[in-house]
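Curious: can you check?
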Amino acid sequence: MAFRLRYWLIGGAVLTTVAAVLLLRDQGAESAAPATVAVNRGEVTSSVAASGTVQPLAKRELAFSTTGTVTLISVKPGDVVTAGQKLAAIDNAEAKESVATAQSTLDAARKTLETATNIYSAELAVTKAEQALTKAKNLLAGTTLVAPIAGKVLSVGGKAGDTATTATFITLGVMENMMVRAEFAEADAISLAVGQKAVVQLANQTGTSYPVTIAEVASAGTVSDRLVRYTVWLTFDSPPADLLIGQSATAQVVVARAENVLLLPQSAVSGKQIKLPDGTSKAVEIGLRGDGNVEIKSGLADGELVRLNAR
């Protein structure tokens, strides 16, 4: 009796072990089964992207009318100024003297005209003196730089005590209309055109996209590190209020779109082949290859399962 009981105990243990092995094998087979995905209907888009910066639509370059020693600079890069605000000045003593001399010359010419017998010659002298005075006054006015518009100071070309020339000394950015300047690779730029819609993401506002429109595509590219890139300007449809000049941005332009089509993830399509759940390869007709999905024009039906990885 004890022998029979021992026999049944051993037999039960063996059966339990076998059942456990079979269960683990089945579970392993299930976990190793390749992932599948269903063909579905939706939109496939193909886009190109490039990095860039926020820039003013226009710049105003301000320069002194004559050479002189800088006596005043009241702004620095980054300052926001109002129209009519005084920005910088150079020594104007010589310019004032020129105005005084020109005024004296004009006064003398007018006095001569009063008693002149050669009226034509006297009137010509007055005209020339008036022109000289106007020029002298303009030179005097140009010894002070005044903001012609409201804007942001982009650059200042010196400091007090420096000798300024008639080259640009202060550059202002027009703040009313800001744009994004992006550098697109040559292969991507050929798909771009003025008027195309796009979106821009700003570096300090991750997750928020702003609608923009392509305003200009450069006709000639620039070469950097053996890569040809084309400058593209994009205008905000509705610019955010806190835009900063020089702010980093990423522009993305949809260059192709297929709507209400059958599609699969890119990983499920290898060339023009897909794999059915049983591993069988099948040829399909491919349409638009998008950023994440591929258009299936024929060969599969809506809802049909295929392997997620076609390789």
